Backbone:
């Protein structure tokens, strides 16, 4: 939960998020269409994942049933229902990357972080998941560290990229 | 062929193209200005005459699609630009958006004018955070300069372009899945008809075009349909085309050619085979395209030639595999992808993609039996043409070609009870750990 939010208004969106959503309203002819952008904004606010209170708050803001929002959240790979690390690592394991050594990168990162797929390191620093093609196969094997592509990986360069994260 | 000057990628690597001023210095927005002086129908006629076919996978003629938008209705009309780019092996749209964002904006604007749409959504995959930032900045500049907004270039034409971020789902690249997603729902494809041209986004007439398709449009309007038609293999396969090449080549990348280049030429452009390996197989059009054997590497990679060879141009993403590659494993990796990405609405697709993965896993792990090849073919038969959207057909593309073109490799697995190759670069979860 973010700073400054009390339990009482826990199913309300913070003003900053709600205002950001309001700015998008004129773009769409329906309120429902705001759901994906709203979930992106909420997820950023809640530190990279969507706790129940976030889902309820988005539902309240857009006048949708929480179950309806939940159904959308579970459909998409970029929304998370459990906590993620401060840094989110997605390692592409699809064919073009696999042909160029994605497996070695994946296994090395896994060993180094010492946690399973989708889990967070005990210090809260990182979480990682194997991922489908990320649209950067010319840099195979590659991964995403937060919002950036890191490509032409070797197991060593992948570890070096992880070490830089704080 | 050596005389070919890149068209779509001419500004790649030129930072000038990232700013509006730079793009205009390079001739940008002249095509929009010229189009606004024509009747919308004249723009459609020019694009029709160019023979431009969709670059997103299906190859539908763009001008014809635009002409399906009904004009005898009061409903708003929309353009949805498909920037979801999730077909494994494909990264050309990202490069176009990152390197030349105004080229896409100009293409969108001309299309909107032609079909009389006042709103365009660019649906960009959620993972493309940096490309989205670049595009957002370019859109902002275009508004400030009066190229978008209430009165485009003083012509009285009103146009808004909005960026809409996806959230990670391959099926949202399918056009009606994309519309559902845009409307704030799970990205589950719709039953057609009605087609989006009549009932699309928010119940209104909608054109859906791929990024690269739209990037061609300013060039057609500036240089003319005849210039465009002169590029390519024949009148059904016209224009420049960006080919992605990845896998076992020295310099994977996006290379622009007249449509109809061969894989051999592409490999040469990409610096040859990786570590001087020998070509074994390739997918010419992304993960959904049937594998072709090395003997087909001379074929013209255009819509009709590849369809004739039992594969497809698809997104024109060549995935190259050398002799170290176990094709059972490669197919298994793709089967896993389709199983993960099936939206689950249709039983043949939901069940079939799951079964395909399980059976291939068994074969690769040495647990297969003699009936498995037949079983895979039966799964293909059940999935082919029986579903709401073409994802199921995409999934059987590589699968069927494995058995048809590389059946002896499957047999070798069954007979030896293991993968016969000493080292397999491809990760196959469940087999490796
Ligand atoms: C499963 C599936 C995924 C698709 N993914 C994409 C995609 O990522 N990008 C794209 O432009 N088209 C994709 N398509 C094709 C679209 O449905 C549609 O044909 C295309 O966007 C139309 O634009 P075009 O005529 O300009 O090619 C996909 C189709 C299917 C069945
Ligand atoms: S074919 Fe597959 S992906 Fe397409 S609608 Fe049916 S279940 Fe969904
Ligand atoms: S396969 Fe890894 S980025 Fe495309």
Residues:
């Amino acid at each position: 939960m973010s700073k400054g939010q009390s339990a009482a208004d826990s199913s309300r969106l913070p003003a900053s998020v709600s205002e950001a959503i309001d700015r998008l309203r004129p773009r769409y002819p329906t309120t429902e269409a705001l759901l994906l952008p709203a979930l992106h904004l909420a997820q950023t606010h809640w530190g990279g994942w969507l706790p129940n209170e976030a889902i309820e708050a988005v539902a309240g803001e857009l006048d949708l049933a929480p179950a309806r929002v939940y159904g959308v959240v579970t459909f998409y790979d970029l929304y998370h229902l459990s906590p993620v690390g401060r840094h989110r690592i997605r390692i592409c394991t699809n064919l073009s990357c696999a042909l160029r050594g994605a497996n070695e990168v994946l296994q090395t990162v896994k060993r180094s972080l010492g946690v399973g797929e989708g889990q967070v390191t005990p210090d809260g620093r990182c979480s990682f998941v194997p991922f489908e093609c990320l649209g950067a196969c010319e840099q195979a094997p590659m991964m995403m560290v937060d919002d950036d592509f890191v490509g032409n990986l070797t197991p060593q360069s992948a570890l070096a990229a992880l070490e830089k994260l704080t | 062929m050596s005389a070919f000057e890149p068209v779509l990628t001419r500004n790649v690597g030129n930072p000038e193209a990232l700013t509006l001023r730079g793009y205009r210095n390079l001739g940008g927005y002249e095509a929009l200005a010229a189009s606004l002086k024509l009747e919308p129908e004249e723009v459609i006629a020019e694009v029709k005459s160019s023979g431009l076919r969709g670059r997103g996978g299906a190859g539908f003629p763009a001008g014809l699609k635009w002409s399906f938008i009904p004009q005898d209705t009061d409903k708003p009309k929309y353009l949805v630009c498909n920037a979801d780019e999730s077909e494994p092996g494909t990264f050309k749209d990202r490069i176009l958006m990152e390197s030349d964002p105004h080229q896409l904006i100009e293409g969108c604007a001309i299309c909107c004018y032609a079909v009389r749409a006042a709103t365009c959504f660019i649906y960009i995959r959620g993972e493309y955070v940096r490309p989205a930032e670049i595009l957002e900045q370019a859109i902002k500049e275009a508004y400030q300069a009066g190229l978008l907004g209430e009165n485009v270039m003083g012509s009285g034409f009103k146009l808004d372009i909005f960026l809409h971020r996806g959230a990670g789902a391959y099926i949202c690249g399918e056009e009606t899945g994309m519309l559902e997603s845009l409307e704030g729902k799970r990205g589950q494809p719709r039953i057609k008809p009605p087609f989006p041209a009549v009932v699309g986004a928010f119940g209104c007439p909608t054109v859906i075009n791929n990024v690269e398709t739209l990037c061609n449009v300013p060039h057609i309007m500036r240089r003319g349909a005849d210039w465009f038609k002169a590029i390519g293999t024949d009148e059904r396969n016209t224009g420049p085309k960006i080919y992605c090449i990845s896998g076992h080549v020295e310099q994977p990348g996006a290379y622009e050619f007249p449509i109809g280049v061969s894989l051999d030429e592409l490999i040469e452009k990409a610096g040859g085979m990786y570590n001087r390996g020998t070509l074994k197989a390739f997918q010419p059009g992304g993960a959904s395209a049937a594998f072709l054997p090395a003997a087909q590497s001379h074929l013209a990679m255009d819509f009709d030639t590849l369809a004739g060879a039992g594969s497809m141009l698809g997104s024109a993403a060549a995935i190259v595999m050398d002799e170290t590659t176990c094709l059972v494993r490669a197919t298994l990796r793709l089967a896993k992808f389709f199983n993960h990405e099936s939206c689950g609405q249709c039983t043949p697709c939901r069940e079939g993609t799951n079964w395909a993965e399980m059976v291939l896993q068994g074969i690769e792990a040495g647990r297969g039996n003699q009936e498995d090849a037949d079983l895979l073919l039966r799964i293909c038969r059940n999935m082919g043409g029986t579903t709401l959207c073409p994802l199921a057909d995409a999934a059987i593309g590589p699968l069927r070609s494995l058995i048809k073109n590389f059946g002896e490799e499957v047999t070798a697995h069954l007979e030896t009870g293991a993968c016969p190759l000493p080292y397999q670069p491809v990760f196959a979860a469940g087999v490796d750990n």
